[in-house]
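Justification of computing resources. Each target in the renewal requires a structure prediction run like the one illustrated here; the chain below, 70 residues long, is used simply to show the kind of job we budget for.
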Amino acid sequence: LSKQFYKLSHILLMREENDFRPSAEVKADLLDKYVLHEYKPILSFDDDLSNSKMLLNKGFKALQVHTKEL
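Resulting structure tokens:
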């Protein structure tokens, strides 16, 4: 693995405190700010339909993961 991939695979991107925007909006901003200018992800997984739709609109192959509420 390249150093760049290794470095990126170990960071956790989270919304700012008191950021109550919808998840898809937050994830889109984080992708634009920290990921897409240096990397070209080829596949995404998400359990939230709105996130999966956003990822598809950005050109990702997006897999919708089924979850069951506990």
